[in-house]
Amino acid sequence: MALRPKRRPRILTVKSAVYLSPHLIRVTFAGPELEGFPLGHEGANCKLVLPRDGETRADFDAWFAPDGPDEKVHAVRTYTVRAFRPDSLELDIDFVAHGDQGPATRWAQNAAPGSFLGFFGPSQPKMTEFYADWYLVAADLSAMPVAEASLEAMPADAKGVAIFEVPSKEDIREIKAPDGIELHWLIHKNTHVPSTAQAEFVRSMDWPPGTVQTCIAGESSVIRSLREHLHKERKVPRKDTYISGYWKIGLVEDEHQKMKRNEAA
Questions:
Q1: pLDDT digits (tens, 9 = 90+) for 146-157
Q2: Is 77 helix (H, G, I), strand (E, B) or coil?
Q3: Helices in the chain by DSSP H: which ranges?
Q4: Is residue 255's pLDDT more than 70?
Q5: Measured between alpha carbons, how far is 55 from 107 in angstroms, rounded to an integer?
Q6: Range in 43-57, 116-130, 153-167, 249-263 with the lowest mean pLDDT
Q7: In what order do the strands lie in the sheet with 10-21?
Q8: Could you say which DSSP state residue 236 is in?
Q9: What does DSSP say about strands 10-21 and 24-30: parallel, antiparallel, or unpaired?
Q10: Distance between CA 93 and CA 146 in Å, rounded?
Q11: Which of 99, 161, 180, 240 is the most exposed place for a label (fewest CB within 10 A)?
Q12: What gap in Å lies between CA 151 and CA 137, rounded to an integer?
């Protein structure tokens, strides 16, 4: 939950919502509210302000007026810009469909043309320079958007390894990546239990020579293990690694963000 922000978000309208796989929903927003949206921000974070169940657009819009209420009424969640098409003013954001317990999941599973939400951002992209001899990408479903955006931005002759961990074989789908990137899919059915598969895969890899850049994100316990391996065992410089915990089993986002701040401190 969040206090009424001091600035007004873009209020975006849904054009379509489709299941890319059983556990991944792509919501496409379109409309004049996307005029001036910055180019080249695929993979960047954004904040979504979610309407309450049954809330009208007029009431949602009024909440952001200067004299609007201050009480905590809307959930705010962090997501990733998957794609922006300036010619058609369309923006894609992918949502993990893992049941209806979370406000963002519930909203996405019920999204239809005309649905709406508030949008703040985007931040800066995670990988803006590509200078490595090879690349290591690892993601669960929550981090597929940043992983896919990074792969699409890589040079055509890029080489490396990409590891995707998904809940079912049906979640395996075609990924656009340079021909030199080896794609590997791992299945972890019970997402309520920490996985060790990604860390085990990386530890068992033949480690190519030269500089490696990473784009790694997902569940915090997985990320902690991979970060320790990369920094302490492989001695990969921190400047060459993007590695971030996007969520934590058993915690809602506000609790997870607090945990990350405490760890950083």
A1: 999 999 999 999
A2: strand
A3: 57-62, 103-109, 144-153, 197-204, 220-228, 253-264
A4: no
A5: 12
A6: 249-263
A7: 75-80, 45-50, 116-120, 10-21, 24-30, 90-96, 83-85
A8: -
A9: antiparallel
A10: 11
A11: 99
A12: 8
Using CA atoms, how far residue 31 sits from 12, 14, 65, 69, in Å, is 7, 9, 21, 27
Which residues are 48's β-sheet partners? 77, 119
What is the rounded distance in angstroms from the CA atom of residue 247 to the CA atom of residue 262? Answer: 15
Neighbouring C-beta atoms of residue 169, cutoff 10 Å: 11
pLDDT at residue 21, rounded to an integer: 97
pLDDT tens for each residue of 160-195: 999 999 999 999 999 999 999 999 999 999 988 989
Q: What is the DSSP string of 178-234?
A: -TEEEEEEEE---TTS---HHHHHHHHS---SS-EEEEEEEEHHHHHHHHHIIIIIS
Q: Could you tell me the two tokens for 2?
A: 């969040």
The whole-angstrom separation of Cα 46 and Cα 125 is 10
Total-model pTM: 0.91
Q: What average pLDDT does this structure show over 50-68?
A: 89
pLDDT, position 101: 73
Q: Which residue is associated with the tokens 């993979």? A: 43
Q: Would you state the structure tokens that stand for residue 168, as one six-digit string?
A: 């079912």
